[in-house]
């Protein structure tokens, strides 16, 4: 199997047709700093009302549906309605009550703040 076939085969794994629409795994970037973990998920064409973000039993689940509105009959189509679905394990150090999400330009941004106990801190050294 040459390199092109391997890539094509891998892409097929990320897209799976379910029901009447395709299911796809959104690409994500994950960053971490001292205060939080930032997760950016690429979900083009999805509107805020069609996105779901849940955290339950240490699992973060995101999903969103992109529904295309078309007029007339298609003579050729390369993309259609799609459901983006992806799950992640969430460390116990995340303060679940303070998680925030925002959607801008087709990118879902999740702010997962660390609990105060999980943040690094510098110990002050006292002199006697």
Architecture overview:
The termini are far apart. The model has no long low-confidence stretch (mean pLDDT 86). Helices cover 9% and strands 42% of the residues. A hairpin with a 2-residue loop joins β8 and β9. By secondary structure, the chain is mainly β. A five-stranded mixed β-sheet has the order 1-2-7-6-5. A four-stranded antiparallel β-sheet has the order 3-4-9-8, with no helix packed on it.
Task: Name its key features.
four-stranded antiparallel beta sheet; 1 helix; single chain; five-stranded mixed beta sheet; elongated; 128 residues; mainly beta
Topology:
Layout: H1 3-14, E1 15-18, E2 21-24, E3 28-32, E4 36-42, E5 51-56, E6 59-66, E7 82-89, E8 100-104, E9 107-113
Strand percentage lies at 35-45%
User: In this structure, how is the largest beta sheet organized?
Assistant: 5 strands, mixed
Can you list the strand order of the major beta sheet? Answer: 1-2-7-6-5
* Unreliable residue stretches: none
Mean pLDDT: 86
Cα radius of gyration in angstroms: 20 Å
Tell me how many strands there are: 9
Shape descriptor? elongated
Q: Please provide the ordered H/E string of secondary-structure elements.
A: HEEEEEEEEE
Helix percent band? under 10%
Count of DSSP helices? Answer: 1
Kindly, what is the distance between the CA atoms of the first and last residues, rounded to a whole number of angstroms? 71 Å
The helix-and-strand class reads mainly beta
């Amino acid at each position: 199997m040459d390199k092109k076939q391997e890539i094509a085969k891998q892409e097929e794994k990320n897209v799976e047709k379910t029901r009447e629409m395709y299911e796809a795994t959104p690409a994500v970037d994950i960053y971490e700093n001292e205060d939080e973990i930032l997760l950016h998920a690429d979900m083009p064409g999805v509107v805020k009302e069609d996105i779901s973000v849940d955290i339950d039993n240490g699992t973060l689940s995101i999903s969103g549906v992109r529904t295309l509105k078309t007029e007339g009959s298609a003579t050729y189509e390369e993309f259609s309605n799609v459901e983006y679905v992806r799950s992640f394990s969430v460390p116990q150090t995340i303060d679940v009550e303070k998680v925030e999400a925002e959607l801008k330009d087709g990118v879902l941004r999740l702010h997962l703040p660390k609990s105060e106990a999980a943040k690094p801190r510098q110990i002050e050294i006292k002199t006697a």
